[in-house]
Amino acid sequence: KELTVLANRKGVTFNTGGVRAQNLGSGDFDQLYLKWLEAVHRTDIGEFERAAKSSDDSELKAWASKTVPTLKQHLAMVQQAEKKGGR
After folding, report:
1. pTM of the prediction?
2. Crossing angle, helix 2-10 and helix 58-83, to 10 degrees?
3. 26: number of Cβ within 10 Å
4. How many domains does the chain have?
5. What domain range is 14 assigned to?
6. Residues 18-47 pLDDT 10s
7. What CA–CA distance (Å, rounded) separates 57 from 3?
8. What tens digit of pLDDT does each residue of 5-19 get?
9. Burial, 48: exposed, middle or buried (Cβ in 10 Å; 0-12, 13-18, 19+)?
10. Which residues of 58-85 are buried (b: 16+ CB within 10 A; e: fewer)?
11. DSSP letters along 47-73, please?
12. What backbone torsions phi and psi does residue 86 show, to the nearest 5 degrees?
């Protein structure tokens, strides 16, 4: 919700499309989805950390800084799920 409000104030739109999978068994899908989630979270953490340090927009800078710990928690949860085999 916070990101949507901030984006609307800044006049920014973003793609909210999801992951599509065809012809995958549930176990294969789980593993691919977890790998995708890990990659996305790693990328997002890097981008949010850069924004928190160097954004010219103070509102965005504060929000990014506040959000980094949550992204790191989510990454840890994804990694834990991967260790359990996606179950």
Report:
1. 0.72
2. 140
3. 9
4. 1
5. 2-83
6. 556 566 666 678 888 899 999 999 999 999
7. 14
8. 888 888 888 766 655
9. buried
10. eebeebbeebbeebeebbeebeebeeee
11. HHHHHHHH-S-HHHHHHHHHHHHHHHH
12. 80, 15
Q: Phi and psi for 66 in degrees, rounded to 5? A: -70, -30
Contacts of 41 (CB under 8 A, 6+ apart): 71, 74, 75, 78
Task: Please tell me the distance from the alpha carbon of residue 86 to that of residue 30, in angstroms, as a whole number.
Answer: 6
Residue identified by tokens 């504060």 is 62
Rounded CA-CA distance 51/60 in Å is: 7
